[in-house]
User: Fold this.
Amino acid sequence: MANLRSLIRDIPDYPKPGILYRDITPLLADADALHEAVDQMAAPFLDAGVDVVAAAEARGFIFGTPLAMRLGAGFVPIRKPGKLPFDLHSFAYQLEYGTDELQIHVDGIQPGQRVLVVDDLLATGGTVEACLRLLEKCDADVVGCSFLLHLEAFGGEARLEPYHVHSVLKYSGDDGEAELSIQNREPGPSI
Ligand SMILES: O=P(O)(O)OC[C@H]1O[C@H](OP(=O)(O)OP(=O)(O)O)[C@H](O)[C@@H]1O
Ligand SMILES: Nc1ncnc2[nH]cnc12
Assistant:
């Protein structure tokens, strides 16, 4: 079995000083590890009757679509403003400096459909909390949230209550590094 943790590369001070960036690209490039990651993200939800996987761009898309296929579900994209062409639900949320916004098509989810939210990483929880608020506007039946990485030091799981949160790899933050979420950055170039 692939050692997933060994394929997460730590990059100190990226994208700015003080941030410890958890780089998933070595794992993505390894065929066995990618397969294993998708299997482990899907495992608790195999019998959950998931109709649709929803995920936010960009890294959420990497795992959202293969998870949907693994679960026999459809895929619905959640995107930044200006990217979806039809009628929209929008949710603006606070970053440390400024705001961000996510959107979903109003007909992306039918009321009562069972939805799994997927992302590569949970830090402050701001991104997936925004996804959950959008799914609530669609009257979705959210079965849970699945992540590859959970940076526990940011307390993001509390923002996702009462939903079921599953993560494959947990980072406790006790490695002594001053870990910061890149969500807590000043607005700047997209990374
Ligand atoms: O729990 P949070 O504090 O919200 O942080 C996690 C989010 O941060 C990253 O996305 P980012 O906004 O950097 O965009 P990207 O997927 O386009 O790289 C990551 O892919 C998660 O979506
Ligand atoms: N420390 C971090 N590494 C990689 N992606 C992130 N998204 C939010 N915080 C992050």
Summary: The domain at 2-181 is CATH 3.40.50.2020 (Rossmann fold). The helical segments are 25-28, 31-42, 59-71, 126-137, 156-159. The radius of gyration is 16 Å. The chain has one domain: 2-181.
